TrEMBL record:
<keyword id="KW-0413">Isomerase</keyword>
<dbReference type="InterPro" id="IPR013022">
    <property type="entry name" value="Xyl_isomerase-like_TIM-brl"/>
</dbReference>
<dbReference type="InterPro" id="IPR050312">
    <property type="entry name" value="IolE/XylAMocC-like"/>
</dbReference>
<dbReference type="Pfam" id="PF01261">
    <property type="entry name" value="AP_endonuc_2"/>
</dbReference>
<dbReference type="GO" id="GO:0016853">
    <property type="term" value="F:isomerase activity"/>
</dbReference>
<feature type="domain" description="Xylose isomerase-like TIM barrel">
    <location>
        <begin position="79"/>
        <end position="278"/>
    </location>
</feature>
<dbReference type="InterPro" id="IPR036237">
    <property type="entry name" value="Xyl_isomerase-like_sf"/>
</dbReference>
<feature type="signal peptide">
    <location>
        <begin position="1"/>
        <end position="25"/>
    </location>
</feature>
<keyword id="KW-0732">Signal</keyword>
<protein>
    <submittedName>
        <fullName>Sugar phosphate isomerase/epimerase</fullName>
    </submittedName>
</protein>
Length: 316
C-alpha cells in the first residue's frame, strides 16, 4: 500500500466511526504565541460535514491570520476550499468573539457550505493551566463540540509558566486534569510544540517531561515538524519511541537561507520525503501551516502550492 492510500485509509477509518470517541479508546481511564487563545462522520444530529478522504490535507488557519483580519473569515474560507483543502484547524476562539467573530453554529455553517470540516482547534489555556478558570475549559469543550471537532489542542505555554523542570511537572499534572475533563465530554486533548520545550533542564527537557508525565491515553501530541527540526531533534525517532502518541502533524518548511523563516512545502531545507516515507501512515491529520510568507508571494498561491506538493508528491 503506498503512502497516500495508507494515510487516507487510516484517516478514513478515524473519520468514519472506526475511531470511537476518546472515552471509549481510553479503556476506562476516566509561533502561535500570539494566539489569544476530527473529522467525524456526518449525522443529522451533529451537523458535521461528511469526511472527504480524497483530499485529506488540512490547513491551520493561523497561516492566514492577516487575511482573516483584513478580508474577513467569510472571504478566506472559500479561498481555502479553492486551494484544495478539506479540513481546517481553528485558533483564537473566545466566548466573547467566537470563531473569528462568528458564533460556533454560524462558523460551522460557513465551513459546511464549502465542504470543509474542522477536526481540531487551538485553544489558549494559560489561565486554566495556571490554576483556575474552569469555565474557560468548559467553553472550549462546548465550542469544539458545536463545530464537530474531536481534538482540543493546547497551542502554546507562556514563558512565566515554564521556567523550570518543576514547572513542567506542574503543567503535566494540570494538563492531565484538563484531559480528563475533555475525555469525559467525548473529546481528546492534544499538545502542540514549539522549540522551547526542547530546552534542557539538567538531563531532561520540558517536552520529555510532558511525554512522560501526561497520560498517553488522554493526552495526544500534535507534532510541529518545523519546530522539531529547528530544535535539531529527530521526529522519526520521537514517534518510534512513543507509538500512538503523535496523532497530528503541522507541516511547514524551513527557508534555505534563513532557518527562522518558513517557505512553501518542498521549497525549503527539510527532507519531508524521507519523513513521510517512514511515518505518514501513522498520523490521523496533517495540517499545512506557514507562519510567514515571502514578500512577493501571494498567500493563497502559497497554500495551494504546499497543498499540492504534500498531496501529489509526499503522499503519492
Amino acid at each position: 500500500m503506498n503512502k497516500r492510500r495508507s494515510f487516507l485509509r487510516y484517516a478514513g477509518l478515524m473519520s468514519a466511526g472506526v475511531f470511537m470517541t476518546p472515552a471509549l479508546i481510553s479503556c476506562g481511564t476516566n509561533n502561535e504565541a500570539n494566539e489569544d487563545t476530527a473529522t467525524t462522520g456526518a449525522t443529522a444530529d451533529t451537523g458535521t460535514a461528511t469526511a472527504n478522504t480524497d483530499t485529506a490535507i488540512g490547513i491551520q488557519l493561523y497561516s492566514l491570520r492577516e487575511q482573516i483580519g483584513s478580508e474577513g473569515i467569510e472571504v478566506v474560507i472559500p479561498k481555502v476550499a479553492e486551494a484544495g483543502y478539506k479540513k481546517v484547524e481553528t485558533y483564537g476562539y473566545s466566548q466573547e468573539n467566537g470563531f473569528f467573530g462568528m458564533e460556533p453554529s454560524a462558523f460551522n455553517d460557513l465551513l459546511r457550505s464549502h465542504n470543509l470540516t474542522s477536526p481540531s482547534g487551538h485553544y489558549s489555556m494559560d489561565p486554566y493551566l495556571s490554576g483556575g478558570n474552569e469555565e474557560m475549559l468548559q467553553s472550549f469543550i462546548d465550542a469544539a463540540k458545536a463545530i464537530g471537532q474531536t481534538y482540543i489542542v493546547i497551542p502554546h505555554i507562556g514563558d512565566s509558566l515554564r521556567q523550570s523542570a518543576d514547572d513542567y511537572r506542574k503543567l503535566a499534572q494540570r494538563i492531565n486534569e484538563a484531559a480528563q475533563k475533555v475525555n469525559e465530554e467525548g473529546l481528546q486533548l492534544a499538545y502542540h510544540n514549539h522549540a522551547f520545550e526542547f530546552d534542557q533542564f539538567g538531563d531532561t527537557t520540558g517536552y520529555q517531561i510532558l511525554l512522560e508525565e501526561t497520560d498517553p491515553e488522554l493526552v495526544k501530541m500534535e507534532l510541529d515538524l518545523y519546530w522539531v527540526y529547528r530544535a535539531e531533534k529527530d521526529p522519526v525517532a520521537m514517534m518510534n519511541e512513543n507509538p500512538n502518541r503523535f496523532v497530528m502533524w503541522h507541516v511547514k518548511d524551513m527557508d534555505r537561507n534563513d532557518r527562522t523563516l518558513n517557505t512553501e512545502i518542498g521549497s525549503g531545507s527539510i527532507d519531508y520525503q524521507s519523513l513521510f516515507n517512514q511515518s505518514a501512515s501513522n498520523v490521523e491529520h496533517i495540517y499545512v501551516e506557514q507562519e510567514n510568507f515571502a514578500e512577493n508571494m501571494d498567500p493563497y498561491q502559497s497554500i495551494r502550492q504546499s497543498h499540492d506538493y504534500v498531496t501529489n508528491t509526499l503522499l503519492s
